[in-house]
Amino acid sequence: MKKGIATVLGMMVGVVSAEPMTLVVPGDNPEKAAAIVAGALKRDLGRDYFTGLERKARGGDAAAVLELGELVATGEYLPDDQVLAQRCLRAQAERGHMEAMMEMGRFALFGFGMEKNPAEAADWYRRAGEAGNGEAWRLLGVMSYNGMGLPADKSQALKYWQMAVEAGNAAAHDDLAVCYFEGDGVEKDWGRAIELWTRGAALGHDRSQYNLAVCYLKGEHVEKNQQKAVELLEAAAAQNHAGSIRLLRYLEEEEDGQQEE
Length: 261
Known about the structure:
This protein is elongated. The chain has helices at 30-42, 47-58, 62-73, 82-94, 98-110, 118-130, 134-146, 154-166, 170-182, 190-202, 206-218, 226-237, 242-260; strands at 6-8, 11-13. It is mainly alpha-helical and 261 residues long. Helix 3 crosses helix 4 (82-94). The model is unreliable at 1-42 (pLDDT under 50). 40% of the residues are buried.
């Protein structure tokens, strides 16, 4: 995990997540599993339907394989049999199904229904990225930065994150901004970092909103502006960003203390 850019008011800021998870495996998360079943039932698909679909897919019915792959790719259903899920996903991914390619990357990276194969995961993410998926480029950046199945290469990670930014991926704005702010793998460029955080914040990304708010609070490479900082923190807190919630609470307590004096 990347180091934070600074501490302010006792809070760590700018920590970039190295968790390339897009979905939690329902088998490991009962709430997710229940949500998937509930979602499927809304589409008038019951358990008997899924049982029949799985039976047909195991029997080699091409239409059933593709339908099950579609349901797994879109998060509407995940069979207990991860091998079957992986086989059906692969069939859809080979046809260029975007969500299926992304999920195949995750299955290959973490070994769901198959042996772990980071090289194959990277290949699926590249294919998804070339098809226009910014998150795929971002995940390749995470893999390159951390040496997860790819050679650890910060300069390559930066290239992937730049591609993700160009594809409109909100989180990649923060990944890239932190590197420019810290001079991590690239020459420091605070102006570029602020620009990226500003764009990421406008896209609604909570970490970008938080990091930009900290800069406004401190007047670090921007003109100090507490009102703007609070607005950004409130936007991030509305997304349950823990650091923003804590920092807002601190600012409120500080203001209350000043009023009492």
